[in-house]
Design brief:
By secondary structure, the protein is mainly α. The chain is 72% helix and 0% strand. The protein is built from three helices and no strands. It has helices at residues 12-32, 38-54, 61-84. Pfam families: Complex1_LYR (PF05347).
Amino acid sequence: MVISKMKPVVSLKQFILKQEVKNLYRDIFRAIKKVPGKGQQEELKEWARRDFRANANDTDDLTIRMHISYGKRFLKELQNSLELSR
């Protein structure tokens, strides 16, 4: 008897949400690199990692979308703050 260790198949909707989350994660870390001061950068990176890990097991599409919109708002605020500080 052969036991398969295949990953579960995800729907197109879930795949797209997963890509949105990954892109948001990357964008947040790119923006954090522009923050002056290594200490502040590290603090923001740890906060972002902790927040993403805390919500990694969410499976409800609506909940995930809510987290994505929260993350996008944070990213926009961070980018605006960086622009103003120049």
